[in-house]
Amino acid sequence: MASIIDYMKKNKDTSFDDLALNDADILSLNEIGYIPFGEVLEPAFDLSQELTLRDVLEHYEGKRDKLDYNFIMTKERVDLLEEMISSQRFADLRLSHYVNDVDNELEKQFAAMIFRIPKINHTQIVFRGTDDTMVGWKEDFKLTYMREIPAHRSAIAYLKNYLSLHEDKVLVSGHSKGGNLAVYAVSHLPSELQDKIAQVYMFDAPGLHEAEVTLQSYQNIRDRLKVIRPEESIVGVMLNIDVEQEVVESQSFGVFQHAATRWQVSEETGDFVPAEKPTDLSLNLQQTFKQWTDELSSQELKALFDTVFDNLIDNGFLSLNELSHFNRESATTLFNVFNSLNAINEDKKNLMSKSAKLFFAAFAGNFKVAKIEAPKLNLPALPDFPDWEEIKSKFDKK
Q: Phi, psi (5° rounding) for residue 133?
């Protein structure tokens, strides 16, 4: 089985005349959209202007050993970028209109950019998925109870600004939350700008609220949607999308299938390798998410996620990267988080208990692994949160 990195190595010197632009190329362009070009290239280059990536990245040759891999700049994505910019196939790949906007006050995480391949007149607008900021993840969970989040408004404005000044048709893509931004923004464009959209690619992305799917503006672009998910999709089964999904094989399993660099493609054609069907895990999670959002009101979901994320942010956890570096200092901070949860009022405490029981009971009731059905669980009432100060004191004595 081949990944998009394997595909790129095999076809790096294959022209678009010999092998036309395909799904593997489009996914590859979308994946390098996770590279934080602003941090890598600025202030030496103006990323609002069009730059040939091969030319500008030559300035950073030999510095790879100093890169700090993280949640979004993974080794696989850097490998893919290096293969692409050193290839003849993508020799004239251009980057422009780069935006990376994280606003803690508005609770917004939005990043977008445009890749262009002049020799085949291909323009691809890429909306980045969630980065490692807590603000970004909190905004993701807002999708469960808000029809429009701050990043949606930014995505609409971004498309309007570009499309109003350019006549060529464009392809719009996004992975994870980026795919949600792509379909939402395109479905909220005026019809004259929608006519400039060739296709919209959603890579394992959450769908839309039911009310959004019924809008005429969404129906106008519905036949241009291409929805692609791994067989064990978890993120991509949230919310609603009413087009047929392409289910593909992955080298990974479980939540790690969300990493699109592990999806399987044909080295010869660039097509995705189709999976037989979604896994039981993915199908059951889809039903569980629906039950969860059906039985918890928007106000309850907001209160739940505000409580969890605000406590993490208020206690100094601003990114997933900080959670991953666990030491005595971070352990103490986590104790403070849990202790503050213990102090919340009874209504919120009961809501968190209700939410946890609902999610796990709904999921466990249908869960299968290796065709062995787990027993349905009759969960007892959840106990109060533990006394984290007492646990912390024992930790400190060791």
A: -75, 145
